[in-house]
Design goal:
Helix content is about 30%, strand content about 25%. The protein is of the alpha+beta class. The protein has two domains: about 5-225, no CATH class; about 360-565, no CATH class. The strands form four sheets. It has a seven-stranded antiparallel β-sheet, sandwiched between helices. A five-stranded antiparallel β-sheet has the order 14-15-20-17-18, covered by helices on one side. A four-stranded mixed β-sheet has the order 8-9-10-11. A hairpin with a 5-residue loop joins β17 and β18 (about 495-500). α9 (about 285-300) packs parallel to α10. It starts with a helix and ends with a helix.
Length: about 575
């Protein structure tokens, strides 16, 4: 069937904005600051075959996993329940089904036009608390998935367009903030209903045959554009590694990547990556895909629409039982936030081997997760969650940005007013961590410094971050950014250092202080990197005298050397 180019352009724009409008509905109706203020949610539309047709520019770690998660969710529903029906909406947070971690509750709505399945609306939102041993539900020591909190395999949230109160009650009963869970869940329902209305409006305007043909054309065109963009990089094989810090701060959790670019395809192989671990730094395969899709789109085709066609030329494999493809029931709460970020940086470093003039230096490399909670004097429980921005790596031709959410998170920092209005907390310090960005021809962005004080009762504080021992690397001779740091501030003003992955109790008047890492510099600073162009990995290593910096920087320098051998 011939496709009208004008209709194609209209449909593409309408689908893209429909996914954005879904997100607006979720934000406007949400109860928790994490969704209403920080925008920790993502929305997408799928066709009747479960293919991604449009997504909003929300959270990369959500969006890249949604196609994988929706496919697995629909397969589960087909296997266990005989398939979807008109008037359904399904809820799931099982990471091994929907693809991230248990805080991310995914809702899937089948859409019917003239009695036949026409597509799906789906959204994913991070609920600040879904049970588990610590407020915020992302512990540092859960030994398995079940210790992390409530696990929901796909279940009805709506049946016959009626909200099932028992499904809402299940989530609320397993959260320290039941009212917020109920409100946020209903906000997600609203988002999917908006997506359904917008997709149905297109079917009604153009008819099923025309719209289906147009969607096929959009996916094929995205594939063609992605293959063309990949061919522009040339062919080559690039190997890089990076190390994640374990709960003791030891950078022992290696992620290994082999990237092969060949004739318009990108093949990524994670053979050699550390085995899965018995604490929550494993990342389910959907999360690994997220990092790959984000990095390749950002560097190779930022203007190519994000749909199923875009990802057809990308092949990803990771051995089961590893840090980037664990087997159930390995714990995965921190893998979604920390391991995902390191993986995205690793893919970017591999791409830098092929095109160093298109890839920035390493950014802060951590989401710097902060979770606080406890029991108020009135007996009500509470839980607060946020990620804190870091320094962005310096870019080819530009300094890095200060204090922003980089790469796999695209959220905002929680406004001080929202924190102090809703929680027994006081923000006593919030500023840029001056001088934490790495030097270079272009300076890396500075991190942030944020101090949160408990004002009532006893508060459990859980901090989950990385880059406390291995600094974010510079690029092409740029210097590394500064590492992150955590401190416990006593009521008398004295301070004690805390680890990067730690859980502590705070009395009223005590605080935790989070300093996030700065980004690496880009290009040679005075007296640095003079031997880089002609040296291999070993000679570059000799320029680095600090071991903590070396473990981060080796990935960059080694890949530049490897490029010279393989291109």
């Amino acid at each position: 069937m011939n496709v009208d180019p004008i209709v194609t352009a209209i449909v593409e724009g309408a689908l893209t904005y429909a996914s954005h409008e879904m997100g607006i509905a979720v934000r406007n109706a949400a109860y928790s600051p994490n969704i209403k203020e920080r925008l920790d949610h993502s929305c997408a539309l799928f066709d009747a075959r479960g293919r991604l047709i449009a997504q909003a520019e929300h959270i990369p770690v959500h969006l890249g996993s949604l196609p994988w998660g929706v496919e697995r969710t629909l397969a589960f529903i087909q296997r266990e329940f005989g398939g979807v029906a008109q008037g359904d909406m399904w809820m799931v947070n099982d990471p091994y089904v929907c693809g991230t971690h248990i805080n991310d509750v995914t809702l899937v709505r089948p859409i019917y036009f003239e009695g036949a399945l026409a597509g799906y609306a789906a959204n994913k939102a991070h609920h600040a608390d879904v049970g588990g041993s610590v407020p915020g539900s992302i512990s540092i020591d859960a030994a398995d998935l079940f210790a992390e909190g409530l696990v929901i395999t796909p279940m009805h949230l709506l049946r016959g367009d009626a909200l099932l109160d028992e499904a809402v009650a299940l989530l609320c009963a397993n959260s320290r903030e039941p009212a917020a869970r109920a409100g946020d869940l209903r906000a997600q329902v609203a988002g999917n209903i908006v997506g359904e209305r917008r997709l149905l409006a297109l079917f009604e305007r153009y008819g099923r045959a025309t719209l289906d043909a147009t969607i096929d054309h959009l996916l094929d065109d995205a594939e063609r554009r992605m293959r063309t963009a990949l061919r522009a990089f040339g062919d080559g094989v690039f190997q890089v590694t990076s190390a994640l810090e374990d709960p003791h701060g030891d950078p022992s959790l290696t992620i290994a990547l082999r990237l092969e670019l060949a004739d318009g395809t990108a093949t990524l192989d994670y053979t050699g990556t550390h085995a899965q671990v018995s604490y929550p730094l494993n990342a389910v395969f959907g999360v690994t895909l997220s990092g790959v899709y984000y990095a390749l789109r950002a560097v190779v085709g930022p203007t190519i629409p994000a749909n199923a066609g875009t990802f057809r030329p990308i092949i990803v494999s990771a051995p089961e039982g590893t840090l980037v493809n664990p087997t159930r029931p390995a714990p995965v709460g921190g893998g979604n936030v920390e391991t995902s970020t390191r993986n995205a940086e690793l893919v970017l470093r591999a791409l830098a081997c092929a095109a160093p003039d298109r890839v920035p230096a390493e950014s802060g490399g951590t989401m710097s997760n902060v979770m606080l909670g406890g029991v108020r004097s009135n007996g009500h429980t509470w839980a607060f969650y946020e990620t804190i921005g870091c320094g962005m790596g310096a870019r080819p031709g530009l300094d890095g940005l200060d204090g922003i959410q980089c790469h796999m998170t695209n959220t905002l920092n929680t406004p001080i007013e929202a924190i102090e209005r809703q929680y027994p907390l006081r923000v006593t310090r919030y500023e840029f961590a001056a001088g934490t960005g790495g030097a270079g021809r272009y300076r890396g962005g500075d991190g942030l410094l944020r101090t949160l004080e408990s004002t009532e009762g006893q508060t459990r504080a859980t901090l989950l971050a990385d880059r406390h021992h291995c600094a974010p690397a510079g690029a092409l001779g740029g210097e590394p950014g500064s590492c992150g740091a955590h401190r416990l501030i006593r009521a008398d003003g004295s301070a004690e250092p805390l680890g990067g992955k730690v859980s502590v109790l705070l009395a009223a008047g005590e605080a935790v202080e989070v300093q996030t890492p700065g980004g690496g510099g880009y290009g040679e600073a005075a007296g640095f990197g003079a031997d880089l162009a002609g040296g291999g990995a070993q000679s570059c290593t000799a320029l680095i005298t600090d071991v903590a910096t070396a473990c981060s920087c080796l990935a960059v320098y080694a890949c530049v050397h490897f490029k010279a051998l393989t291109r």
